[in-house]
């Protein structure tokens, strides 16, 4: 990530001020500085956009032909470079795509099973479900799955679909 100019500048500043900090602290400070720089930019630029618009009411803001809270053109360009880097090297990385595929399978399996057998839901959610394949059941199942942590969803999937898992 150090090849991204926005990151490189922040990293250089961190390393200059704290040359011997542990890597986890270095990363935390890097992220803090990046967020701070972007926040400062958006606030400064937005103040100028609002001042240029000179609104009298909220309707003036709503009726503006452009966003009034936005990065400066220079920061937008830097953020775009960072975003492209992240998409190319992280979000679309084969490991991330593989894990995303597995997560989709887990969610799909849980949703399909709970839709067809809502009595397997915990009591609170089972009461909301009105029977297999109904809109109310779909809402209950979606809300139940949506509230799961990753670890809970994997454990639930294992419990429901693994032949070797003990039924608890």
Structure write-up:
It holds the Pfam family HD_assoc. With 168 residues, the chain is an all-alpha fold. The chain is 72% helix and 0% strand.
Task: Give descriptors for this structure.
168 residues, mainly alpha, 2 domains, 8 helices, 72% helix, flat, hydrolase, Phosphohydrolase-associated domain-containing protein
Outline: flat
Measured by DSSP, the beta-strand proportion falls in under 5%
The major pleated sheet works out as: none
* Secondary structure category: mainly alpha
Topology as a string of helices (H) and strands (E): HHHHHHHH
Could you tell me how far the N terminus lies from the C terminus, measured between alpha carbons in angstroms? 45 Å
What is the domain total for the residues?
2
Kindly state the percentage of residues in helix.
over 70%
Number of strands: 0
Uncertain residue ranges = none
Give the helix tally.
8
Mean pLDDT: 93
Radius of gyration: 24 Å
